[in-house]
Amino acid sequence: MSDNDSVTLTINGREVAAEPGRLLIDVAEELGVFVPRFCYHPGMKPVAVCRMCLVQIEGQRKLQPACSTPVADGMVVNTQEAGAVDAQEGMLEFLLINHPLDCPICDRGGECPLQDQTYKHGPGSSRYVEPKRTYEKALEISDLVVLDRERCVLCWRCVRFSDEIAGDAFIQLVDRGPGTQILTFNDEPFDSYFSGNTIQICPVGALTSKPYRFVARPWDLKSAPSVCSYCSVGCPITNESRDEKLVRCQALPNENVNDFWICDKGRFGYHYVDSDERLTAPLERGANDEFQDVSWDHALERVAAKLRDGARVGVIAGGHLTTEDAWAIGKLAKNVIGTRDVDSRVADAGAPYADVMISGLSPAAGSSATINDLATARTIVWMGPDPKEALPVLYLKLRGAVLDHNAKLIVVSPRRLSLDGFATHVVRSEAGGEARAVDELMSSPAADDIGDPMVICWGPSSPGRDDAGVVAALGRLGAARDAKVLMCPPHSGSQGLLDMGVHPSLDAGHETAAEPGRDTRAILQAAADGRLDVLLLFGADVIADFPDADLAGRALGGGAHVVTVELFPTETATRSDVLLPSAAFAEREGTFTNLERRIQKLEPLLEAPGVAREPWRICVALARLLGDDWGWHSFVDVWNDIRSNVRTHTEVDIDALSARGPTPAPQYESGYEKDPSHSGGVVAGPGGQYPKGYRSGTPFQTGQNWPLSWELRGFEARQRPGIVAGTPNGARPSPSGSTTSTGSAAPDGESADGFVLYAGRMIYDEGTMISKSTALRHIARRPFVELNEEDAKELELSEGDEAVVRANGTEARLEVRLADIARGAVFIPYDQKGFRANTLTSAPRVTLARDL
Amino acid sequence: MAVSQALVVRKRLVEVDEPWKLDIYENTGGYAAAREVVTTSSPEDTLEEVKASGLRGRGGAGFPTGMKWSFVPKDIFPKYLVINHDEGEPGTFKDREMFELDPHQLLEGMIIAAFAVGASKAFIYCRGEFALGSRRMDQAIRSAYEKGYLGSGIFGSSFDFDVVLHRGAGAYICGEESALLDSLEGHRGQPRLKPPFPAVKGLYGQPTVVNNTETLSTLPHIFNHGIDWFRKWGSEKSPGVKVFSVSGHVNNPGNYEVPLGTKLSDVLELAGGMLDGNAPKAVIPGGISAPLLTITDIAMDFETLQAAGTMLGSGGIVFMDHTTCMVRNALIAAEFYEHESCGKCTPCREGTWWQVKVLERIEHGEGRQEDLDLLLDMCERMDGRCFCPLGDTAAWAVRSNLQLFREDFQAHIDEGRCTYETDHRTLVGARAIGPGDAGVTPQPSEGIGSDSEASS
């Protein structure tokens, strides 16, 4: 009956074929036999400590844990044998003797695996009459996580996540026996970028979210699947609201993207959506320079009038726009207004994305590799920003590729990155010498570990650096073999904007523009010089994000009529002539295209505040006023247009983006027959009857509590995989098509004065969205400058001193941190407390001096 | 009928002064077997000899030693030998004695074992409380290195063998071999998920043989005298001699080495019989993990005791007379397991906690009738469902007290008090009176030098 690829076993009398080596608990679940569990989590290695999943296997003297037993040919398993059922009930009785029954005030109540499984498998009452074990309740173990050790069932999930997945074992088991507890060490905080995942996988209410504490009961929540709006990894998430307020974001599993995880920025950085500071109505600068509310018709007509009058229009889009916005903006600019001066690179201004295509690394200005290719790669080259800070979940994937799949990771960087701890080779490039370091890789010790399949990861690491040279060098490295590239632009919408042609030298579908236009820097320069009539800014806060704050400021004051589509009255927005309010991600139906060019869908959960609109609708209205009626009324209309006009996206099936998983197995066999209210064909847990918006009927979309908590339903939730966009077939533009500006720098010679400046994102900063998110806005650090110890010695600076950093006439006082960074280079983080790094990044070099 | 010991492993430490010294060890035939094996035999032949001897592990489980060694994959290096000297089973003090008094005997056995399995490095995991023993062993290792019996090319052969002594930090669970390995690696001492077994993936992920002190201390004698000599004692399946630690209500508590299969009543006679000539009420035959016996007419070997529903275990025998409150006895055992449970799995962590709570109530006169069935039920729900044997044996200990002496429990409930004198003699450890009071410590036999002697 079975061959090498498959074994046949019997579970509860039903025969099933399965891949050898798979775990019994998973195979049973796919068959519709749910084996109760606490410690087992499909994203982590089994430990078999909770003993909840004991099943009877014929021929075995003792009951066996299904979570750590691989299937074998001829195995006969019974999950409902009397001993197994007694074990399940007994284990719950044991777990409950010390579990406080404070469900009515517990955040987990209503979506709690312990609660749910007690209903299904547990004893109706307790025989335990003694006092319960007590601990101090509600320990705040970080700014985000609260620990209640009394509720803990010691399943080790949080400990294993921190150790196995995140690699920062801040949370641990201490003491032993019945006194075993989960704790952080020596009262140090649970200072992990991924700490929120432990809340989500906690099978009880032991770890709870500080921002969500006592905010809602699960049955009051409405929820909708969405995609995180921060970085370009594009982790699928669930947005949840109560009383039309966004109150929680949780990870939605997708084995192609994030497995089961998201970073704390994605999880806790949602309050900005409900901020009182959101723009709710169009604003127009009035007679005495004050903004006044106007109607959409009035505002749009005024913008249209300016566009009709002005021959010279520049369009800049920010990185958090959806694919649909991108298509509309590109179409409005290039087809309706008729300008080529369109760009979507703001913080990453000048990043040579098109060169990735030109260098031959990829057939598109984007990735040719998927995130999953990391797991099968023999060699991974990392040449980009620190992924733990900038692309946190990609960091987890890289870590897993090295530690679980034995990939060889080569990191090229002038400064220490989080990857260095497990990288196979770390190449500390000279200041400004990354391209040369890449060229020298094949003659370095790392050469032995370069082999196929190879994935080259590149992302713009710092403004002003020679990324064009880096991409060219990576192209030479990759050309020698069959390398794929994982291109890592910074934001959730960055790749979608490139795909849709919001770029001066690329049209939609990665076609080289016949006549390239100006890039962001050139547009701002033109505006500053008074050579622009209208400047359209879609979610682009150029003063805060463009690497030359001074130029951005002059551009806004250069006389052009500035129109801004924004969520907030940012500094850029308040210097505009017309402000148009935009809907935020949780309010929108749309898609983000992530760094592997995977398109994933956002579902609307909330109404946008006031009359705020989706940016693509603003484009539609402007186009109509300018005489071009696109006839779009819905998300589907936009996509019909994209599919018929963008060659790379003709095959995208938008229905598949929101496709449901397969119908759940009709009968969950283990224990459910005890429950007379669910004796029919469809099985629901206690959560099944709750009124809850998206949840009802479509548990796999939200992964929510139906019939058990979401992580137990992981295999179904994975059924929303998204679609990777196509690539232009064989069309590779010639290098002459490139007009990409590389910012400023020629390769830095050693003779030049000062330090080569690297600036980069930390996970928490004072960006617009984060600084409006109550949970995260205080976490940004004090600004600092990292430099080499030898350099510091020469400047008579030491750790903790204040240094004066000067560039182009601006200066900042920053705390000195000695770091593993190349001599002659300094690193400054963006947007830490009270300091905007882009006041310095206009120059490739800075000088440092002691503050006297 | 005069019963006598069959002295093999304990021979030197009974008959010789200062047996821990290398010159004395050598003068009494020490290191001859190891030298012979390493210089003239092959690993394969050595393994075959141990298999043929039928030697079974003396740590508790009684697994055939040769078979355990044969599970080690041949072609993976390095391999490790680890000595389980974490002797913590209440009622057991045999390893401690031979380790303190005759450390070279163990080192010699280790050389033979390491040669057979191809390990060139060994770790001795010594129970943390054994201060004297660890000092003696430290000295023994140093003197063996000086003589070239340890280190590179031992006995002039091409076989390299290094030994590292490591002291534990006070956890009973680290006597479980995989918890021992985790502890040795510097982790929290908790049992590992098996498979893989240590023979395949043990210390630092390498093939590892974990053997008990007494097991390896027996090896030199087998090689000196031959298999037939060894097999003249015991049975086909339990050949050889075994050291039993005898304590409780006996006249001469101590270690006694007798052939396997010796009657329990003979062991009692060796220990001078029961105090005051009383009859034994209950006997723990193999450390408190082993279910109780109420008879003494039983052969002390692996298979007979197993057939009787208990086990030979570690060989710690505790005799109890009629003054013993079996509720208190169960409570003492339960408190031990609660204290020593590692907390990894649910039934052991919560079950031992609950057992103590219920037994405390019964002992203090607050028992309810339903508590008796509750206790039995609890034991059923722990037994066979725990991650490692610690939890299972915690269930056995309480269950056997309750099943065999239910009348004691019933009397406590009926009368609402402990029905024994409050100042009665206690056994494996009186209930702690205050923090740090570990109760009665079993007295080791004579001959242990002071600490100052060990360092000289």
CATH hierarchy class name of the largest domain in chain A: Alpha Beta
Please, how many domains of chain A?
A: 5
The whole-angstrom Rg of chain A is: 28 Å
- Any low-confidence stretches of chain B, pLDDT <50, length ≥5? 424-456
Uncertain runs of chain A with pLDDT below 50, 5 residues or more? 661-718, 731-751
Largest sheet: number of strands, sense, barrel closure of chain A: 7 strands, mixed
Features:
heterodimer; A: 852 residues; alpha/beta; Ubiquitin-like (UB roll); Alpha-Beta Plaits; Rossmann fold; six-stranded mixed β-barrel; 26 helices; B: 456 residues; de novo design (two linked rop proteins); four-stranded mixed sheet; 19 helices
Write a structural description.
- The complex is a heterodimer of chains A (852) and B (456).
- By secondary structure, chain A is α/β, with parallel strands linked by helices.
- Chain A has 26 helices and 36 strands.
- A 7-stranded mixed beta sheet of chain A has the order 15-14-27-26-25-16-17, with helices on both faces. A 6-stranded mixed β-barrel of chain A has the order 31-35-32-34-33-36.
- In chain A, strand 23 and strand 24 form a beta hairpin.
- The longest helix of chain A is centred in the N-terminal third of the chain and has 16 residues.
- The relative contact order of chain A is 0.12.
- With 456 residues, chain B is α/β, with parallel strands linked by helices.
- Chain B has 3 domains: 220 residues, Rossmann fold (3-Layer(aba) Sandwich); 84 residues, Ubiquitin-like (UB roll) (Roll); 101 residues, Up-down Bundle (de novo design (two linked rop proteins)).
- Chain B has a 4-stranded parallel beta sheet, sandwiched between helices. In chain B, strands 6-5-8-7 form a 4-stranded mixed beta sheet, covered by helices on one side.
- In chain B, 57% of the residues are buried.
- The longest helix of chain B is centred in the last third of the chain and has 18 residues.
- The interface between A and B is medium-sized, with 34 and 31 residues.
